[in-house]
Amino acid sequence: MLAFNLSTRCLAIAFGSAALCLSGGLVASATEFDSATIAIDKTLAAKVPAAIASRGVLTVGSDTTYPPAEFLGGADGMTPMGIDVDLAEAIARTLGLRLSFVTAQFDSILPAIGPKYDLGISAFTITKARYGAVDFVSYFNAGKQWAVQAGNPSHFDPANPCGAKVGVQVASTSEKLVIGLSDKCIAAGKPAISLVALSKQTDIITRLVNGAVDATMNGSTNIGYAVKQTEGKLQTLGGISEPSPNGIAIAKGNTEWATLIADTLNKLIADGTYARVLSAWGSDSAAVAKAEVNPVVPEE
């Protein structure tokens, strides 16, 4: 299994009874970004929906297995950390709320926006299919990236993935893309891709390090971070493709709440808070100039 052990500030990848502890470690955002300095914006706070304002808590659902967007760390290994956590904290403080950042399985989050969570912040790629279930506020740009073991011992070719064993996260846009590639292989009379779909991206990275899969595709920020943390065990392959915005998920049709979240993010962009969060996690290149409600996205 793969575990984030921040008590020793390392990324441990277990190989049976053995473990690899990487010296670089995961960098806790608290050393780079301090949300305590963020002041309440009274104008924005006055627009918080009454049900949320009355309890004083912003509840966010997230799959905390996707560094550097979100993962569990800290001395107890259970503290949410990452880009999305810091941005959620900044949003909550600006609106005069406390943050409850709740760990959930990725594919369970969108159906629970509204009844269970005020927001879903989990590096969701905005797609037209997802617009059928929720609204989005764009806040981040990311593309897709392949990763393989260093040296590519399986000789994986992104241009010809037919017959390869590929790891993806369940219900992710990467899973859909790889299934599409596999369908094209079959249509061309070639072997299908052997898909290994797991609920946690960290488990896929572990399998790739172990050689149990030939490659993985995922968001470029996550892949780049995994390559960095495994210090020579993995490498990216090919360029970044399928560039698209990530979005904060909001209950479908709740336009006023979506607009308030966009306005809050744009305040954080304007005052530099947003840039400091992304810089703390080495993700400056993924920044957006403006948060938008339900931006137009390409056809799938």
Structure description:
The chain is α/β, with parallel strands linked by helices and 300 residues long. It has 2 domains: 2-142 and 244-286, Periplasmic binding protein-like II (D-Maltodextrin-Binding Protein, domain 2); 144-242, D-Maltodextrin-Binding Protein, domain 2 (3-Layer(aba) Sandwich), CATH 3.40.190. It is built from 10 helices and 14 strands. The chain has helices at residues 42-45, 50-55, 83-94, 106-109, 128-131, 173-187, 201-210, 220-229, 255-270, 273-280; strands spanning 2-5, 10-15, 18-21, 57-62, 65-66, 70-73, 79-81, 98-103, 119-125, 134-149, 165-169, 194-198, 215-219, 234-251. Strand 6 and strand 7 (79-81) form a beta hairpin. The protein is globular.
The parts where pLDDT drops under 50 for at least 5 residues are 1-31
Q: Work out the helix count.
A: 10
- Rg result: 19 Å
The total count of strands amounts to 14
Query: Would you tell me the structural class of the helices and strands?
Result: alpha/beta
Summarize the main sheet: 8 strands, mixed
Number of domains: 2
Strands of the widest sheet, in order across it, are 8-4-9-14-10-13-11-12
Shape estimate: globular
- Which CATH class of the largest domain applies here? Alpha Beta
State the CATH topology of the largest domain. Answer: D-Maltodextrin-Binding Protein, domain 2
CATH architecture of the largest domain: 3-Layer(aba) Sandwich
Q: Roughly what percent helix? A: 25-40%
Distance between the termini: 34 Å
Mean pLDDT level? 89
- The CATH homology group name of the largest domain: Periplasmic binding protein-like II
- The portion of residues forming beta strands comes to 25-35%
Order of helices and strands: EEEHHEEEEHEHEHEEHEHEHEHH
